[in-house]
Amino acid sequence: MNIRLYGRVVLISGGASGMGASHARAFIAAGAAVMIGDIADEAGRRLSAELGERAAYVHLDVTSAADWERAVAETVRRFGELSVLVNNAGVLDGGPLGTYTKKQWQQVISVNLTGPFLGLSAARDALVAARPSSVINISSAAGIQGVAGMHAYTASKFGLRGLTKSAALELAPHGVRVNSVHPGGILTPMIGATEEVTVDRGADTRTRLGIPQEVSSLVVFLASTESSYCNGAEYLVDGGMTAGVIAN
After folding, report:
1. Catalytic residue among 6, 100, 153, 229
2. Known active-site residue 57
3. Three-state DSSP class for 135?
4. What is the mean pLDDT of residues 94-107?
5. Which single residue of 44, 108, 130, 158 could bond 81 by disulfide (Cβ 3.0 to 4.6 Å)?
6. 188: left (phi over 0), alpha (psi -120 to 50) or beta
């Protein structure tokens, strides 16, 4: 174990699989304690057991303010404080205008945007008490550029980018930093990939997808005091997807 994040206590939403599980493993490896929040109880408990005594699991539906309050309270009860919040839970859903329903739209917005708002609201006082603290909102490259047919997803990720900035401005005087991370195409179960997938990290980043660990490295940095002057900013991990186009 290294001590890069020794003494840090992290609450991760959507932490039972995919990028969330990768972040949890990276936090544990860096010396932090981690509360895994998710609706996938079996997977969450299994990951918590794998990670050992510095990890725990709590049921967390990010659309529920009551669940958020319980998750924050349980984190503080179990580990003594809450100094890092990772709003990672998200859903991916799309469809063309005219057929994409209001119900679909509201579900995506509820999880991807209202969820982080509720998390920030519930965790605010605990984060201030544990200052210096850090919030990392997992947005998307779709929060930087539009994606045809992915209207609710794109809107939610642009919205999370904006929420990051307003929260950063409000919480800065209280010792809490808030930043957003914008992954591109990452090989996770959300897009049908297995947890064990590997890539050639020497390959052209424009022609391959990323792996969760490539995002987790940045998330750990933003949680640490190494990023103590980084606030209200967006960080892309997209292999150059949003950099522009290559001329023929």
Report:
1. 153
2. no
3. strand
4. 97
5. 130
6. beta
